[in-house]
């Protein structure tokens, strides 16, 4: 386990292969929730929590259940069920401690279940840190760490977008493009910018 | 009533977009345009008539697009404020001289329409419009945007830019620092002649239209980073002067990263902005897939400007305190 | 009643209005064939899962409702996947991983949670059809633009009419741009109508 590996995972997950701006996963909530910074931050923390915990749990399931019993083809289904259960749990917690936020999120909170970013990082972990169905050295800690970093990358994109949209609220934007259309166009230009990270090789 | 547009370090009681007089906006735009004339002349001298055509088409397309859009949307027509002209000029400066005529037309149209007016017009765009246009063109028609001709040979013989050669690991002994400084190399129209660019930049600095914070931190970061990491053996010993003089760094650092609307408000914000632009540029140049990273770096940092402002701006008078 | 069906097409179009199901939209709308194929597959899953969930909504404990929905949805996705592999393997190959990924298509779970769990079977059926049709139409519209201007083709046929296709439209950035501009255009029409 070396520092370089952790650094690579961090830089890759947060900047070079940013889950939203480079891999284009998790867009539904990105366009819909990023209008203001506080809810965007809250959603990001929820997503980061889910990605981290589901990275951990799915690692165990993959390592001790799917591989020994030769059921790796059940990866997608089992991962998504784990994630679904977890999101349900998070939802109950938020409903208890911050009901207004719960109501604000509406449909987009249970939709973290099908947030491609969450399933994406679980699948990515099992692809990257298991070679020929054997766990590489440090596989567990790398998987968990990558879960955290993908969450951080998601948070970065959300923060950028929500700051932009908050500022545009003060501006006199043409009415037809207000809110969603402009959100899509901003995402389009942001992803053009992040294309600068294509083809990275250390 | 309204602050002079360029007097940003005096007491600010509002966030951008500021209320400003038309007079001062117009003046700054035309001053910046004037400061770019030396670089334009140099580009035409190095690359010939094709460069002149490209510039003229780019500028015309930008101005016509803005005029038409403002007519169609029944907003005030203010093409004489020079900002569309500046966008067209900067976009053309970022193109190779021999591009097909429709490239600057489409690029300027996209830059002005999508990069600027979709956001509501002057003062409200998040991204530098010229760069939006250039990166759009680069992604759409890469083969035209990366076909450069030999300097001072006006018969369209293709060549690679110094940075492209570096990326492929080829030797670049034939190009001296003086060549880079004067513009005797392949590249985009407005980026090659460092001497002309610096002339214009000095003018803007002297008159106070731009401040040194962004360009200096941008260029210095690239220099330091490439010195440390671009060495041929291990750390240190990198050819930092080559990196500073190559590609679009000087053009970008002095004329595009300094755009008021798309860069932060405070001095601290400027430095953060410049340093991060420099880091991103250097990292892309050294390890990324593209030979040059200035356009991408600035666009990425444009998207971060509202966030930087949010956390570095001075307390708004009368507000309730940090959110 | 008809309203439940129509709302999915315009007023609450899943792609343009609700911003759901974007991940597959970005990837699949590169060509019109893929767009149509995905639209049909997703519609089938939507109808099936909406009906079943509306039927059993009262017997699912609220605390575990989401995992239950997932099981139902996954079942229909598997049916769709196997049917496609059997009867149109070419399409299955074209859509690739995005067929099993209908499981995580926000639209399906979104409608299950927002509608089918709270409404009658009949209404949920209409909602499913409407949303599916709306999604398919959106996919067709976006992919026509992207395939024509981005690759000079429609339905795989080369119609390059003397213009150079803009490659950016084949990338996610181009997709987002097309969706944003289309949506702005629709809003403009809506404004004019008033």
Produce the secondary structure layout.
The complex is a heterotrimer of chains A (202), B (323) and C (194).
Chain A lengths: L2 H14 L10 H7 L3 H30 L8 H23 L1 H7 L10 H13 L1 E2 L2 E2 L3 H31 L10 H15 L8
Chain B lengths: L21 H26 L1 H24 L10 H11 L8 H12 L15 H12 L1 H4 L2 E2 L8 E2 L2 H6 L9 H6 L11 H13 L6 H17 L10 H6 L3 H8 L10 H21 L6 H19 L11
Antiparallel strand pairs in B: 1-2
Chain C lengths: L1 H6 L14 H7 L3 H25 L8 H23 L1 H7 L10 H11 L4 H31 L1 E2 L2 E2 L13 H22 L1
Antiparallel strand pairs in C: 1-2
Helix pairs in contact in C: 3-4, 3-6, 3-7, 4-5, 4-6, 6-7
First CA to last CA of chain A: what distance?
Answer: 18 Å
In total, how many domains does the architecture of chain C comprise? 1
State the assembly state of the protein chains. heterotrimer
- From the spread of the alpha carbons, the general shape of chain A counts as globular
Strand content of chain C: under 5%
How do the strands of the widest beta sheet of chain A line up side by side?
Answer: 1-2
Distance between the termini of chain C: 25 Å
Provide the succession of SSEs of chain A.
Answer: HHHHHHEEHH
Global mean pLDDT of chain A? 86
Number of helices in the DSSP assignment of chain A: 8
Number of β-strand runs of chain A: 2
- Please, how many domains of chain A? 1
Summarize the structure.
The complex is a heterotrimer of chains A (202), B (323) and C (194). By secondary structure, chain A is an all-alpha fold. Chain A has one domain (40-191).
């Amino acid at each position: 386990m070396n520092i370089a590996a952790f650094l690579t995972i961090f830089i890759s997950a947060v900047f070079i292969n940013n889950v939203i701006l480079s891999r284009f996963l998790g867009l539904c909530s990105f366009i819909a929730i990023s209008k203001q910074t506080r809810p965007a931050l809250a959603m990001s923390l929820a997503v980061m929590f889910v990605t981290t915990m589901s990275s951990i749990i799915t690692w165990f399931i993959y390592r001790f259940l799917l591989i020994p019993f030769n059921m790796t083809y059940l990866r997608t289904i089992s991962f998504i069920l784990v994630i679904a259960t977890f999101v349900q749990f998070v939802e109950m917690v938020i409903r208890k401690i911050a009901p207004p936020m719960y109501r604000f999120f509406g449909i987009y909170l249970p939709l973290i279940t099908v947030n491609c970013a969450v399933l994406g990082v679980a699948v990515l972990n099992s692809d990257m840190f298991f070679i020929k169905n054997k766990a590489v050295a440090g596989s567990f800690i790398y998987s968990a760490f990558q879960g955290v970093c993908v969450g951080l990358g998601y948070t970065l994109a959300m923060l950028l977008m929500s700051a932009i949209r908050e500022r545009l609220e003060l501006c006199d934007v043409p009415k037809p493009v207000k809110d969603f259309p402009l959100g899509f166009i901003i995402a389009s230009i942001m992803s053009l910018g992040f294309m600068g990270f294509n083809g990275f090789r250390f | 009533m309204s602050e002079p547009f360029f007097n940003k370090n005096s007491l600010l009681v509002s966030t951008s977009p500021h209320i400003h007089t038309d007079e001062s906006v117009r003046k700054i735009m035309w001053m910046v345009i004037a400061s770019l004339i030396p670089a334009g002349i140099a580009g035409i001298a190095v690359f010939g008539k094709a460069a002149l055509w490209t510039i003229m088409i780019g500028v015309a397309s930008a101005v016509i697009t803005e005029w038409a859009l403002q007519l169609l949307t029944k907003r005030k027509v203010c093409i004489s404020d020079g900002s569309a002209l500046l966008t067209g000029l900067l976009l053309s400066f970022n193109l190779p001289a021999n591009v097909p005529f429709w490239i600057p037309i489409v690029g300027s149209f996209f830059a002005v329409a999508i990069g600027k007016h979709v956001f509501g017009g002057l003062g409200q765009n998040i991204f530098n419009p010229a760069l939006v246009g250039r990166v759009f063109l680069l992604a759409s028609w890469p083969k035209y945007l990366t076909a450069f001709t030999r300097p001072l040979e006006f018969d369209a013989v293709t060549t690679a830019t110094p940075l492209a050669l570096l990326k492929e690991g080829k030797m670049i002994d034939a190009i001296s620092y003086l060549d880079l400084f004067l513009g005797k190399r392949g590249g985009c129209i407005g980026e090659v002649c460092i001497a002309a660019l610096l002339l214009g930049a000095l003018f803007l600095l002297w008159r106070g239209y731009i401040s040194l914070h962004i360009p200096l931190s941008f260029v210095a970061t690239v220099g330091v980073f490439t010195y440390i990491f671009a060495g041929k053996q291990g750390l240190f010993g990198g050819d930092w002067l080559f990196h500073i003089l190559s590609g679009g760094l000087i053009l970008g650092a002095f004329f595009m990263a300094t755009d008021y609307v798309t860069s932060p408000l405070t001095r601290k914000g400027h430095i953060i902005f410049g340093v991060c632009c420099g880091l991103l540029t250097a990292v892309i140049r050294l390890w990324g897939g593209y030979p040059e990273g200035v356009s991408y770096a600035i666009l990425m940092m444009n998207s971060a400007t509202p966030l930087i402002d949010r956390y570095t701006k001075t307390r708004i008078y009368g507000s309730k305190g940090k959110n | 009643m008809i309203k439940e069906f129509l709302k999915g097409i315009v007023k609450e179009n899943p792609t343009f209005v609700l911003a759901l199901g974007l991940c597959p939209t970005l990837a699949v709308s590169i060509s019109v064939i893929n767009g149509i194929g995905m639209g049909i597959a997703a519609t089938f899953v939507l109808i099936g899962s909406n009906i079943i969930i509306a039927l059993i909504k009262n017997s699912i404990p609220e605390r575990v409702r989401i995992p239950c929905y997932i099981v139902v949805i996954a079942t229909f996705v598997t049916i769709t996947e196997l049917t496609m592999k059997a009867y149109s393997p070419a399409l299955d190959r074209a859509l690739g991983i995005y067929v099993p990924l209908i499981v995580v298509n926000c639209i399906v779970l979104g409608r299950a949670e927002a509608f089918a769990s709270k409404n009658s079977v009949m209404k949920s059926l209409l909602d499913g059809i409407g949303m599916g049709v709306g999604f398919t139409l959106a996919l067709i519209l976006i992919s026509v633009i992207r395939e024509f201007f981005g690759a000079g083709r429609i339905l795989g046929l080369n119609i390059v009419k003397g213009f150079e296709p803009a490659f950016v439209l084949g990338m996610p950035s181009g997709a987002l741009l097309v969706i944003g501009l289309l949506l702005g255009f629709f809003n403009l029409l809506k404004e004019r109508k008033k």
